[in-house]
Amino acid sequence: MSQKTWGGRFTGSTDSRVEAFTESITFDKRLFRHDIVGSQAHARMLAEVGLITADEAEKIATALDEIGQEIVDGKMEFVTSLEDIHTHIEKALIGRLGDIGRKLHTGRSRNDQVITDLKLWVRDAIDELDGLLLDLQKAFVESAEREHNVIIPGYTHLQRAQPVLAAHYFLAYVEKFQRDRERLRDCRTRVNILPLGAAALAGTSLPINRESVREKLGFDSVARNSLDVSSDRDFALEFVFCLSVIATHLSGWAEEWVIWSTTEFNFLDLPDAFCTGSSIMPHKKNPDVLELTRGKAGRVIGALQHLFVLVKGLPLAYNRDLQEDKTAIFDSMDTVGGCLAVAAPLVRQTKLRREVIAARLDAGFLDATTLMEALIARGVPMRSAHEAVGNLVRACEERKCRLRDLPNSLFEAVAPSHGATVKASLGVENAIDAFKSYGSTAPTEVAKRLDEWKQKLEL
Ligand code: ARG
């Protein structure tokens, strides 16, 4: 009898180069736990509908547990001739139970089995990511609380724009990672639909009960169309898209902190434990963790590209190309999981260099927009106020001074009889206090948001 599960139709054996070329065991062995859980549910269902006996189902379930332990203990020998994890486990089962083991694959195909395993794996990955993202959010909220009233420059185009509270800055990232968590939660709803029972592509003539398997494996519903199931990798695309957005958020943040930790900016005191040195330049403290976080985003976005190109031209239903989905899914999850695991402690241990930041807040006209709004509030049309402040900034650049160093007469000329009050709106502290709108950096608004996040994240 052939070694292959599909050997019956074949006379010759497979070329060893083909075995090496078509195998997936080197990367899909990490699905073994999910494969076992899926097979146990399938076996118990087979017993319920009378396709095997209850005793056979329990023997299968017990043997599968033992096989799982063997894999954990590193005792299973993985060989390319057995292609993938599904075949390895089934062969091991048959090795233990003989004909009883030969019954497990009843009413099932590797096509629906592999998607079931993958969906179970992705579901666990999503739950793990949610925990990691939550921890990172907590780290940012803690920083927001610690640095609450520190005023920092806000940037657009990486040019000084308006002052913001440090808490407002940290909470901006909490919002981004909240959307990432929501996106994953939404993705999970489509991951959590049971594929098993679609069999190869058309279903089966055997009296299987998919609803029972659904319940056993904790899926929310049963996939309606077997042809769709066997070709569907939307869930993988969505999952890796979600990972790509997380990686993109992390990368932007990492880039910002790389810049902020330069001598030129000097805004941050990065923890030694999260930096590395140079083998030749003794003074160096390099932000490698942040740089790699930025760099690894490329791998994750690359994985999304990989998946899109993989599925874009596939006719229904299963095609072997789909075996290539796993490296993209696993690598992007490992990469993002790894980035998140170091991001949270790095955020927690990084401090703002408050004195350095404060000493330079007068540079860059952070209060110019507040001055313009003070003029608008006193009846100057917006465009005129914009132009007038632009002129004042130009005057400052000529005199090399701040807006508040200009003579009162210049303010009086722009806002007759309001010159002094308008001038009194200058300075970053006044600018911060002037903010009012919902969601702005106004201290009362930021304090509310901080309280809301502390409650929501149970801090
Ligand atoms: N290792 C295969 C995969 O990952 C399992 C499915 C194989 N199905 C088949 N018809 N050859 O896609």
TrEMBL record:
Domain of life, source organism: Bacteria
GO cellular component terms, semicolon-separated: cytosol
Keywords annotated in UniProt: Amino-acid biosynthesis, Arginine biosynthesis, Cytoplasm, Lyase
CDD domains from the UniProt entry: Argininosuccinate_lyase
Subcellular location: Cytoplasm
Cytoplasm recorded as keyword: yes
Location of the Argininosuccinate lyase C-terminal domain: 365-432
Protein name: Argininosuccinate lyase
Lineage: Bacteria, Pseudomonadati, Planctomycetota, Planctomycetia, Gemmatales
Designated gene of the protein: argH
